[in-house]
Amino acid sequence: MSPLQSNNSTTSSTTTDCETSNCCSTVSTDNSATNGTANNGIDSDIDTACYNWEKLADSVLAGHAITYAEGEAILGAPDNQLLSILAASYKIRHRYFANTIQLYFLMNAKSGLCPEDCSYCSQSKISKAPIEKYNLLNREKIMAGAQEAVDRQSKTYCIVISARGPSEREIQAIEKMVPEIKEKHDLHICTSLGLLTDEQAIRLKACGVDRVNHNLNTGPTHYEKICTTHTFEDRINTLHSVRKAGMEICSGGIIGMGETTTDLVEMALKLRELEAESIPINFLNAIDGTPLEKQDDLSPSYCLKALALFRFANPSREIRISGGREIHLRSLQPLGLYPANSMFVGDYLTTDGQLPEQDYQMIKDLGFQITKNETYEV
Ligand code: SF4
């Protein structure tokens, strides 16, 4: 039995026994809840007395894989347990990363012009957002981005294109540029080029790409509600191609697209199954002109619980606070770095991030250190 002594029913109320689990809570795991507001600390059947999140963290550190019900319990916990949840998630994070922060720098190497219809994306064929549209940037611009990544103390330079998948010309350009970047800079290279075939993945690996980003974005059931031009399974297949080619997997999602807590837990556990090395967590920036422009149901505390969920589910993996952190975590941004150990520094694909100096100050104020190491097991 897990430390939360829970079952896996779709809608359950789980009571634990203090004698056996150091816990005296009743946690609602109502799967109908969506993000933030509905499940934001006011569920009527939650007794907040003494849920033992630290014990769950200890159990995870001893090898326990959290269950669906435990994942739902984290998301459904009342706000007066938020600091306990964050402290427990920090205990896990500290085991693998101590107080280090890994920084990432993103280059939108091809913007707009995408034939897909992802409803959250300002670059999709159905988006009316007034964004810059351009084809693959030239070598000079991509090399300049690499220098900027170095200047910003980034461990990884992420080269992203908007596309269903890369064209032959784009793959060839990557094959040419990546060795040049790696010869000049001590940078990890992550590419995000859309869906990949086995053969394309092998070519990326051969030219020096360390890692490929391809986000699951949401849970499998919710996927068809946010995109109709490709499937969740298509994305999984690309991640399998990446793994088979011998590269690391970077895959995460976007919170706040109308998904249920169950969808989110499913995504967290799917990423565990895939053994994704790197998990970027975005919070929907509802961009005007996209189908999700009116979607707005996140609270800072829910976003923090979601980050904790991903840490509990993927204890030793990089959890990166990504797009939308400034909007949805707001004044609680620093707390996000207790479960997470990584962040982007600078702007996102089509939206602005906060100034790098503000990020450096936040890291310094937390007493954390920027690192280029993979892990820091203590
Ligand atoms: S495939 Fe990528 S770039 Fe294209 S619409 Fe979807 S998220 Fe946007």
What would your notes on this structure say?
This protein has 378 residues and is α/β, with parallel strands linked by helices. The chain has two domains: 8-95, no CATH class; 100-370, TIM Barrel (Alpha-Beta Barrel), CATH 3.20.20. It has helices at 18-21, 53-61, 68-76, 82-97, 139-151, 168-184, 198-207, 223-226, 232-244, 261-274, 300-313, 325-328, 333-336, 356-366; strands at 11-15, 26-30, 100-110, 156-161, 188-192, 211-213, 248-250, 253-255, 278-283, 318-321, 342-344, 369-371. The strands form two sheets. Strands 3, 4, 5, 6, 7, 8, 9, 10, 11 and 12 form a ten-stranded parallel β-sheet that branches. β4 (156-161), α6 and β5 form a beta-alpha-beta unit. α3 (68-76) crosses α10, α7 packs across α9 (232-244) and α10 (261-274) runs parallel beside α11. The two termini are 28 Å apart. The structure holds iron/sulfur cluster. Iron/sulfur cluster is lined by residues 114, 116, 118, 121, 123-124, 162, 164, 194. Residues 114, 116, 118, 121, 123-124, 162, 164, 194 line the site of iron/sulfur cluster (SF4).
